[in-house]
Amino acid sequence: MPWRVEIDCILDIPMDRAWALVRQPRTLTYISAPLLRFRPIDPPRWPEVWPKTEPETKPETESDTAPDRARAEEAPGVRYRVAMAFLGLVPMGRQWIVVSFPRAGAADPPGARLVRDNGSGDLVRMWDHWIIMVPRSDGRTEYRDRVDIAAGVLTPFIWAFAQVFYRWRQRRWRALCRREKAGGPA
Fold it and tell me: Where are the transmembrane segments (predicted)?
């Protein structure tokens, strides 16, 4: 059974700008650094923007709205093989990052946008990470990281690392938003 990490924050930028940033691999490298570094292997370079796959058109059913299940209309993700290093120095194996953009379901908040990395790797057989972004009436963005982890006997240790990692990422997100508001480069 997977272990879950779920962490929320408020991003002090509008939803459209937050969405544009989350679609860029350079945002992933910024918010993860220096705690975790990713080096693309296959393909050997990041795209400028994560490609958006088109979901199948299917009628919504009861099972599509379950908040903890993948949406039935989700398209297969685009796969990226990466090498990971803790603090850029300690190898942590290879991981598949499998990016998709599921449609929000009836159980999601109004206006929600979703990103999913349904990855796996050398240390982790399941790394099902969802980013859920929701516009707020005050012009800011609700941001949630939710990841389900399964790694056999390593699960408790990787879950503990993920608790730290996603808090770090959200701290870096907030710093990036401050730079954005100040007019600095993203």
Answer: 149-168
- Secondary structure element (H or E) that encloses residue 18, with its range: helix 15-22
Ranges of each domain in the chain: 3-59+66-181
Between strands 36-42 and 141-150, the pairing is unpaired
pLDDT in tens, the chain (186 residues): 899 999 999 999 999 999 999 999 999 999 999 999 999 999 999 999 998 775 544 444 444 444 444 444 455 678 999 999 999 899 989 999 999 999 888 888 889 999 999 999 999 999 999 999 999 999 999 999 999 999 999 999 999 999 999 999 999 999 999 998 887 655
Q: Which structure tokens are listed for 147?
A: 């990841």
| Bridge partners, 53 (sequence order) | none
What are the structure tokens assigned to 167, written together? 């808090």
Fold (CATH) for 3-59+66-181: Alpha-D-Glucose-1,6-Bisphosphate; Chain A, domain 4 (3.30.530)
The answer to whether the peptide bond before residue 34 is cis (omega within 30 degrees of 0) is yes
Distance (Å) of CA 1 to CA 29, 96, 125, 162, 186: 29, 20, 12, 16, 38
